[in-house]
Amino acid sequence: MEIKHDLYLGDCEEVLKTFPDNSVDLIFTSPPYADQRKKTYGGIHPDHYVEWFLPKAE
């Protein structure tokens, strides 16, 4: 059994659009700490996290 792994750097909403359908088995994300990472995510309040994250999960 061959195990393949790749790492991609970029905006997930853009990078994932370039992947062929049915080519990804798993996507691992960080927990919803966006409010604590204001410099990285712009400070997403926990009450708005799901609305912010859903477009990325599509």
Alpha-carbon distance between the two ends:
29 Å
* Shape designation: elongated
Most strands sheet: none
How much of the sequence lies in strands comes to: under 5%
What's the structural domain tally?
Answer: 1
The Cα radius of gyration reads: 14 Å
- Estimate the mean pLDDT confidence: 79
Number of helices: 3
**Quaternary status of these chains?**
single chain
Number of strands: 0
Which series of helices and strands comes N to C? HHH
Flag low-confidence runs: none
Helix coverage percent: 25-40%
Which structural class do the helices and strands define? mainly alpha
Outline of the structure:
This protein has helices at 12-15, 38-41, 49-57. With 58 residues, the protein is mainly α.
Description:
With about 60 residues, the chain is mainly α. It has one domain (about 10-55). Helices cover about 30% and strands about 0% of the residues. The chain is built from three helices and no strands. It has helices at about 10-15, 40, 50-55. The radius of gyration is 14 Å and the shape is elongated.
